[in-house]
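Troubleshooting: if your tokenizer reports a length mismatch, compare your output against this known-good record of 199 residues.
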Amino acid sequence: PMSGSRAESIPQLPSPPARLWVTIAGNIVLAGVYIGVGTVSLAAATQHRVVSSLWPPAGIALFVLLRYGIRFWPGVAAGAFALNVSSEVSILGASLIAAADALQAVVAAHLMRRILGRRRALSRVQNVLTLALLGGALAPLIPATVGVATLVATGATSSATAWSLWLVWWTGDAVGVLVVTPLLLAWTAPEQAPPTRKI
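Known-good structure output:
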């Protein structure tokens, strides 16, 4: 049998109803943050009203799913959908773009979790390279490709500007991940006690 001190050291998992409410509240908060930060980012958009050259929401979404769990993807989708609808994108187009934004975060977080395991702090070169490759280079291909194709198909932009718009979309998401996600991971990383010197 375990001693009392050891039993007390084991963290108590929340009950299923409590976990459900935490998930719902977390998704609502994430959607609100996504909308707020995204609105500021779109204010600086030049080529298209829904494409920014710097997209911090992508970095925030990856951080949340990587740190707290994949179950928060609906918050990403809801925030992206609201942003695009408010920017006069059709409901179908906004739905497709929102799904692509959520898929970007899910794919990057899932792959990084499998590769890095529990060591998700960026204190090792391998972790930094994994974030740069998966989160900053590969995953942003999803929303950039789906988003531009959707805008062209719905008549929101012309095929003549598709390539330049795709490049801005991809780089905006990539820079958002490479700048925001490491900062948030470092900010929320548990403090480590300094090593003790043996006498």
